[in-house]
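ok so i was messing around last nite and threw this chain in just to see what happens. nothing serious, just curious
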Amino acid sequence: MRAFIFTILCCFALPFIIFSQELSYTHYDVKDGLAGSTVYCMALDKEGFLWLGTENGVSRFDGTHFKNFTTRDGLPDNEILELFADSKGRVWMAPFRNEVCFYQDGVLHNQQNDSMLARTNPLANINHFAEDSKGNILFDDYSRSRLYYISNTGNVKIANKIGEDSIKKEVSIAANSNGNFSVLENNNLFAFDSKSFTPVREVSFAGIYNRHIFLAKNLLITRDNKNMRISGLNSQREKLIAFPTDFLKFINIKDSLLAICKHSGVDILNVSNFSQTSFLAGIPVTGCIIDQEGSLWFSTLGQGLYRLNSIELKNILFPRVDHVRQTASCLFKDNNYIVAGTNVGSLYELTTAQNKVSVARTRSFYNSATNAEILDFLKLPDGNHIYLTTAEIIKTTNDFNFITMKSISNKSVCNINDSELIIGTSYNAILFDPFQFKIKDTIWNRRATSVFYRNDTFFIGSLDGFYLVKRDKSFQYMGQHIPAFRNRIATIKEGIDGTLWIATYGDGIVAYKNNKIIIHKTAENGLTSNICRTVFVDSNAVWVGTDKGLNKIDLTKKDYPVLQFTTSDGLYSNKINAVYALNSNIYVGTSDAVSFFNEEQMSSNSRCDLRITGIRSAGTNISINARNLLIPHQKNNIQIDFVGISYRSGGSIKYQYRLTGLSDLWQSTEETFINYPALPSGDYQFEIQAINKFGVKSNIISVPFSVQKLIWEETWFKLLLSAVVAAIVWLLLTLRVRFIRKQESEKQKVTKKITELEQLALKAQMNPHFIFNSLNSIQQYVIEKDIAGANKFISGFSRLMRQTMFFSTKHHISMNDELNYLTTYLELEKDRLENAFTYKVEVDATIQPQDYLIPPMILQPYVENSVRHGVRYRKDNKGVILIEVKKEEEYLVFIIEDNGIGRKRSQQLKGNTSIEYQSRGMSLTEDRVNILNEKNVHKIKIAVEDLEDATGNSSGTRVTVKFPSIEN
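result:
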């Protein structure tokens, strides 16, 4: 009986079910940011923004955000009845109030702030706008008595007559193909420029009301009570069409496309062939427009805004069975068909032609919607088919004749070999023989949500994660070390390279190969959701169905980018149950229908336009068209707003940006603004590029600007500071030079003083008494006729004088010269005093006198004192003067020792001889030594000792002079 019912259903019942193809729309309303649900009009400006006139203001839409304008922003009235975008970027607005305004470069111009608009002064609501090829604007109002002309230079002209006759009939205006304006006034068509109206032709049966006649660039529509006549302006071709009773208005969408807006939807008529397509049945449509990607938009009364998601994407809706909605539960290929299995056990063989999908044949296993859904399909080597449902395994012939079935609560199936299947059920995982149609073994005793087999290993997905099971039934839990495998496993598929793609029900999809994860895609890096329901592996891509849309993982590109498809692209539902890719044709089973699209066509029409929508400095708006933008340093908190316009992307746009002058590295964001809270002074260039969901890139936009320098960063300040620093340096150098000069002057004074002292010392050394005595001695030699003695004495005296004069010009002389000088002096004194003393000079053997330098004539005064105040007073002519030279560390030591009467006795004798010359040689020498010590680090040291014998009597004087050792 069951087989009989099955055959009857297949052959007779289901082929008579009627199928429908549905289009998908994205709906925007007040909850999405639209200013009002009643949208009277639409316009697309030259930048690609969509403008919407509502009962609560104007909305500008970029595909991601709505920006709303009201009377607070400059609108004369919040209810906007007409919009028009011209070639200069102006968006003209006709409010319910009898005024006209326009938006340009971020500013709303109205009759209060724009003198040009103030000269228009409309008498009624604006009806239509038009623009000619030169950029002149023409509009009319509902008073039916005036035309308002605004030239491209801003001149305003109001025309209330055509020729000699006043304008008093229904009027319609448009730009014509000749570059001027066409004006239809009741039954007459005119060409209009800024100066005059030129008759073109007479028009038969004009409209009853102003809104029932319509003029476009190459199109004219007039009507009577029942019909409308559509004709070309420059041809006699025309067509008579019934006028809709619920008519709202005409919209010339593009070229030959005409939208007939009605209370019950919109008809789009191609006037080139008069083909017609209807949209949004039952919804009052007020406007229709095509954006730059070719998408259709519809404005409505009370129901907001609609976008036709995709003309390329088609949806097949299945009929209800027992009032139960059918959903596509699986997709597979059988012979030349893609077959969709449903939740009520039905199979729909789909065929595609000219990018359209249709149902070629329908079959079913059950006669009631309460039965099981179809999960999978396998073709056996003998040509028979195996169908897996949630309740049974069914075997049929190739031509769908029933063979047998077995009741099993199935979840998943996979081929092991020609004679074995592994089937995951609600209770276990079993080995099944499809030929004998019986269970061979149980390899897993728990619920198996998905199964796969390869190389003697069973891959089992369960509610608690992913397991590997061997033939001997030993198993390994993969979630122990891999967190992603602790989630419920939805399905397991194998790629052509052996990679296992494991879809989880909570942590995205995982690519597993060679015992490691090579790819892990989640909502954080591209998926529409982490709940993955189905997977289809293609040669170059992996298609992943989730509870929030379809995803394509591109395996041919770096980082495996993800392309998303959702209801905004035309899918009938975001809950994806199955997917099948055949070349570029993609079939998607959803909870409501089977969606079909050609991937190449979906992405080929896409484009992405990037726009800078605002620049703010410390919260203050700056004109985005400003050149040489200079930001005050105290307002260096910069925010740049931007948007990528790609309506088909549904707001899924990524941006790459950088700020040269701060960093040359490109960064990514999905936000539509970038904020730099505290930029340092300098010149910058902000560069940004938008990338839509299809990978289409916009042009790179550059925004150069500068942050004003602080006063100390300004060039003039740096120059001034440099001048001040230079002045300070010059002043310091001048002071330093003066100081050095002063030091040099003082040094010269000291040197001069030394020279004077040396001269004084020389004079003191050569005291008059010595010279007088020397001259007396010479005289005595002459009287005694001792010519030889006189010559000897004179020779020694003259040599001493020459040495004295020569040494007086030197700062240092060799020790050898000093000793020769002292010897010459002592020889003279010895001869003068008639050999009253002897002298001896002893130099340490380690000292070479010619190798050392000492100041000249420091020792002579001390030698002189030894002669004059020491040995000369001895009565026994046994006086001895010893000059000893030795070296102690860094000093040359000169010891002058005599055996004279001593200093005390000498002072007494000097005091008793008033005529005795008082020698100043010792004191002058001390002064000279003190000055020399001030100049030198190593000092000259002088010590004078009185010598005494054993009884305490004076036995002479010893003078020790230490000179710093200076090598010649």
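not much to say yet. The chain has four domains: 119-243, 314-604, 609-710, 746-967.
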